[in-house]
Amino acid sequence: MSAADWYAHKSLGDGLFWIQERFYQSDNRANIWLLRGSHQDVVIDTGLGLRSLPDYIDSKGLLGKDPQRKNPLLAIATHAHFDHSGGLHQFQQVGVHSAEVDALANGDNFETVTWLSDREIAERPSPGWRARNYKVKAVQPTHILQEGDVINLGDRQLTVLHMPGHSRGSICLHDRDNKLLFSGDVVYDGSMIDWLPYSQVSDYISSCERLVGLVDSEQVDQVLPGHYNTFGAKRLHRIASSYISRAGTCPAKFSTLTWRTLAGFALRMSNPHCAC
Asked: What is the domain range of residue 94?
């Protein structure tokens, strides 16, 4: 299967594109965001990496034909989990938060929580392909990101917000001028996951408090999340506030501990050679 068949995209205007993997039919299917700038273009999260995302972007002409543009496309992972980082190895420039650099450089399929089944792939990307052979390929990040870093695209800037909880290196990218928040898995319109290896409920509560603060200070109008559909500031406030209220209860803490134990066991069984 070609890259042109594997992916599909939708233009949201103003140099922003929403890309998805058509045949990865799972709640784990991540949104891939492509944002064009006057001097630098960025792709935010890269999916599984089963087909070439750069080839798709090029074949569809999503970056245009500006002869003055010399900077290679920068791929940023909002965090290291497999559904967001699997395609990073396809790019010359790769950015991730410092807390998850080693996981990507070592191809650590425990920390990237690599968990894929045949039933999630509606059409195999190549003859004989099997999910059990899928692994996140090691990649050495070229851009090691920290809280407050600014990614300059020329006519727009993205500020790195370190928002741990879902994973230790989870980030949001905030376009302050346009009040856009690329939120990865820090927040989306669904059940937020805080029970994976390296998840931390106390960190997640703090991150959600920051999200509420962004809404209260009118710094966000639209959220472009790692999964599902986009949503606005009121919904962001409601989701983040609900998590804060729920996460502190005893039943929620017990459930988190149980699921973390089960998830860790399952990941060790599926990735027996990981350093975990």
From this structure: 3-248
- Give domain status of residue 259, yes or no: no
Here the tokens at position 188 are 């989306």
- Decide the pairing of beta strands 143-145 and 93-97: parallel
Helix spans in 120-249 (H): 201-216, 233-247
Residue among 140, 254, 127 at smallest CA distance from 194: 254
Specify which residues 24 forms β-bridges with: 121
**What's the total number of domains in the chain?**
1
103 located within any domain? yes
Q: Three-state DSSP class for 158?
A: strand
**CB 137, CB 89: distance < 8 Å:** yes
List, in order, residues 6 or more apart from 13 with CB less than 8 Å away.
none
Confirm whether 210 is domain-assigned. Answer: yes
* Residue in 110, 100, 80 with CA at minimum distance from that of residue 275: 110
User: Which parts of 38-100 fold into alpha helices (H)?
Assistant: 53-59, 82-85
Asked whether the beta carbons of 145 and 100 are under 8 A apart, the reply is: no
| Residue 131 lies inside a defined structural domain of this protein | yes
Rg of the chain taking only CA atoms, in angstroms = 18
CATH number at residue 189: 3.60.15.10
Tens of pLDDT along the chain (276 residues)? 899 999 999 999 999 999 999 999 999 999 999 999 999 999 999 999 999 999 999 999 999 776 566 678 999 999 999 999 999 999 999 999 999 999 999 999 999 999 899 999 999 999 999 999 999 999 999 999 999 999 999 999 999 999 999 999 999 999 999 999 999 999 999 989 998 989 999 999 999 999 999 999 999 999 999 999 999 999 999 999 999 998 866 455 555 655 455 555 455 556 655 544
